[in-house]
């Protein structure tokens, strides 16, 4: 889990997810630097991917999660072969798409839904990502979901009360706070939660 605040990481890049927990859908994206990638602004202006934009426009509430912070990729043993930074971010983005699909999420990412990047092509083996790195990131995600929702992703994905669990999370995690644009301390509509 990434415990750094957005101020601590805004000059770094990495991988993020915009999660629709009640409907178990997710958008996985990458940012060369988080301060230059304002997905909430794009959604607010109506210029995002069709399915994600449609849900956003209908008032669906989302959670924004930073999944991976790229501070110095050279320090980590991620890839089997050397890659440049842009290729690394692309392949980490695809790895997280695969990881989240493994937990049953439907992807908003249109390039995947149109099978331009099939799940077969996004296999960990095809991405040349070390299995140990993938398993660690999988455990980090499980721990993050457990901390936020008090249950593991497999339980939450099948949970018939996901909307209620999500609303409780928003209510108690944002109570009395205002954490930036589109976050309003638990007062509906909460468009994004961190």
Describe this structure in words.
A hairpin with a 4-residue loop joins strand 1 and strand 2. It is built from 9 helices and 5 strands; from the N terminus they run αββααβαβαααααβ. The two termini are 12 Å apart. The protein has 194 residues and is an alpha/beta fold. Strands 4-2-1-3-5 form a 5-stranded mixed β-sheet.
Mean pLDDT: 76
* Percentage of residues in strands: 5-15%
Low-confidence stretches: 176-191
Helical region count?
9
The percent range for helix content is 40-55%
Please give the number of β-strands. 5
CA-based shape: globular
| Physical arrangement of strands within the biggest beta sheet | 4-2-1-3-5
What separation lies between the terminal Cα atoms? Answer: 12 Å
The secondary structure category is: alpha/beta
Major β-sheet annotation:
5 strands, mixed
> What is the radius of gyration?
16 Å
Which series of helices and strands comes N to C? HEEHHEHEHHHHHE
């Amino acid at each position: 889990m990434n415990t750094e605040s957005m101020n601590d990481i805004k000059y770094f890049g990495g991988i993020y997810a915009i999660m629709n927990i009640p409907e178990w859908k997710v958008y996985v994206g990458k940012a060369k630097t988080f301060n230059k990638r304002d997905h909430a602004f794009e959604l607010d202006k109506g210029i995002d991917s069709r399915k994600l934009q449609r849900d956003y426009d209908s008032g669906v509430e989302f959670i924004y999660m930073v999944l991976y912070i790229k501070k110095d990729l050279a320090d980590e043993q991620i890839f089997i072969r050397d890659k440049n930074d842009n290729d690394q971010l692309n392949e980490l983005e695809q790895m997280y798409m695969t990881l989240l699909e493994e937990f049953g999420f439907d992807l908003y990412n249109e390039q995947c839904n149109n099978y331009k990047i099939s799940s077969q092509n996004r296999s960990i083996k095809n991405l040349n990502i070390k299995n140990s790195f993938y398993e660690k990131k999988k455990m980090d995600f499980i721990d993050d979901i457990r901390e936020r929702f008090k249950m593991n992703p497999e339980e939450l994905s099948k949970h018939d009360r996901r909307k209620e669990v999500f609303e409780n999370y928003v209510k108690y995690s944002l109570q009395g706070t205002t954490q930036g644009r589109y976050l309003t301390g638990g007062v509906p509509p909460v468009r994004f939660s961190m």
